[in-house]
Amino acid sequence: MNPPAAPMTLSMPPIGLGVFRAAPDEAYAAVRAALDAGYRHIDTAQVYRNEAAVGQAVRDSGLKPAEVFVTTKLWNDNQHPARLQDAVARSIEALGLGAPSLFLLHWPVPGLRLGAWAALEELQAAGVLRGIGVSNFMVPHLEELLRHARVAPVVNQIEVHPFLQQRAVRAFCAAQGIIVQAYSPLTKGLRLGHPVVQHIALAVNRSAAQVLLRWGLQHGLVVLPKSTRPERIRENLALDDFALDSAHMAALDALEENLVTGWNPQQVA
Ligand code: NDP
């Protein structure tokens, strides 16, 4: 029998603002702009070095911490048992919002990931953490985790866009009830000018970025676009008033090229 999924007390909005490579002052301004625009989901990480700015922006927004879904991630060095508990405590303190909605293992660190997962399970059982999940786990990493876990990850956050569709991982996660969050859903900007994307954008009278994000939503993904520009932050949330038809979806589905724009977990043992 599969282990039960980790509990979360706040439901997860399908569009979250990413703050990777945003300096603290930029992250603060971006989160304030996003919350003003209607985002209720922010994605940060220890390694982004902006957890404190994200937490400050949420607190200054006038919203209650319980109204904003905040994810952070344990950095790789901190998966070591001697460092994990302190690192979790530092994240919670830096955010200043109580337990984060979701706490992820950032990477499937060989030799450390199973012990780190067991530690997250204990912290969750003790009420220190709420939702717990993983990031950059491919199918073999997930199979191994589920063989050992008492609690299944609620989320696997991986790079997904039409040029890197991760079909096997997505199918595995769907079968296990694990939510897939798509990071770098805009290909870090690398394929916004692709002719197929541009053609569809013209046809639906939306931007290339909105087309890529809508593709993700229509595949049941939670999308995490990053921008520090208020007008793009608003644009990336405005996805409710149009849809891609089956021909557009099929054209985007045909763009697979295993384009990894960041780090690549496919070869991690
Ligand atoms: P994205 O695919 O979100 O692309 C971000 C880039 O696109 C930036 O250069 C941004 O520029 C630009 N951009 C944003 N919106 C638009 C728009 N509407 N039109 C044109 N250009 C736009 O890349 P990221 O790699 O940042 O991924 C998003 C988030 O995913 C991260 O911030 C992070 O939270 C998460 N992530 C997680 C990883 C993990 O290992 N778990 C790894 C990588 C990312 P500008 O800011 O100037 O608008």
Could you walk me through the main structural features you see in this protein, from its secondary elements to its overall organization?
This protein has 269 residues and is an alpha/beta fold. Helices cover 39% and strands 12% of the residues. The chain has helices at residues 24-37, 51-60, 84-95, 113-125, 139-148, 167-176, 195-204, 208-218, 230-235, 246-253, and strands at 17-18, 41-43, 69-74, 102-105, 131-135, 155-159, 179-183, 222-223. It has an eight-stranded parallel beta sheet. Bound molecules: NADPH dihydro-nicotinamide-adenine-dinucleotide phosphate. Residues 18-20, 43, 106, 135-136, 157, 183-189, 192, 207, 209, 224-229, 232, 235-236, 262 line the site of NADPH dihydro-nicotinamide-adenine-dinucleotide phosphate. Residues 18-20, 43, 106, 135-136, 157, 183-189, 192, 207, 209, 224-229, 232, 235-236, 262 line the site of NADPH dihydro-nicotinamide-adenine-dinucleotide phosphate (NDP).
**What gap, in angstroms, lies between the N and C termini?**
25 Å
- The tally of helices reads 10
- Tell me, briefly, the overall form: globular
Residue-averaged pLDDT: 97
Bound chemical compounds: NADPH dihydro-nicotinamide-adenine-dinucleotide phosphate
